[in-house]
What we know:
By secondary structure, the chain is of the alpha+beta class. The chain folds into 2 domains: 5-149, Fructose-1,6-Bisphosphatase, Chain A, domain 1, CATH 3.30.540; 158-271, 3-Layer(aba) Sandwich (D-Maltodextrin-Binding Protein, domain 2). The protein is globular, with a radius of gyration of 18 Å. Helix content is 33%, strand content 25%.
Amino acid sequence: MSLSKQTLQHRLQVAVTVAKLAGLQFHERFVCPSKACAVETKATQRDLVTAYDKACDSLILDHLQEAFPEDLFLTEESFQETHAIDLSHTWVIDPIDGTTNFAHAFPQCAVSIAYVVDAQPLVAVVYNPITNELFTAIKGEGANLNGVALQVSSIESLGQSLLATGFPNDSKTTSHDNMGYFLRFMEQCHGVRRLGSAALDLAYTAMGRLDGFWELRLSPWDIAAAVLLITEAGGRVTDWFGNPLLLNQRKIDIVGSNGCLVVHDAIVGICSKPAPYTVVKVD
């Protein structure tokens, strides 16, 4: 499917408008952080969903379906595990990336919206309404933060890098865990941040706040928009083995970086091997 620049710009404008509408609902949670926020769990005790997630999901979906009725839609809150992931001409939506942060009124969360054709993101919006940071991108047109062009960092070694990562919601029970890798990276770089939103971690890599990111078992809606931000800002995104990233999978292991071969290959070099440490899990 070939889409004109004008068509993609229109889709970006609609996505920005919808993201800002969803962001307005965030503020109710942050006006009075001590107020209780009703939280439910999904697959695990750490896999949270709030009424805000559901409301923002419905708001975004309703507006985009009205604007683009011929498109397909993949959203975190409406996805059913028995369904295949079709990214042929699909809006990929995470109404609140960083739900655990949101539930605790920790302001590291964002609306993430991507328009994807043939599994390639063409339009991206990542919006944190609490900090008023609006990241946008169109394929081939660069990436921006509040209208200012983004550029990845110029760091050229892992040892000088500031990295970020996250942990799966089922990390307490799964054998495919990240803790061993986390410990190794802590030895190899300036520091590792665990901020709680993959979309923002990748957006920060696109703008040079971070130099690299790795995480495992993410979903397409966590990263589809931010992947485009990184590549349009001059960075690189692959799987854990340095191969092209495939977004049409249910669980995705990802490495994102500033694009420096030394930095990216060093991250892949650690991720592509068995975990260097064994972490004993205690009930």
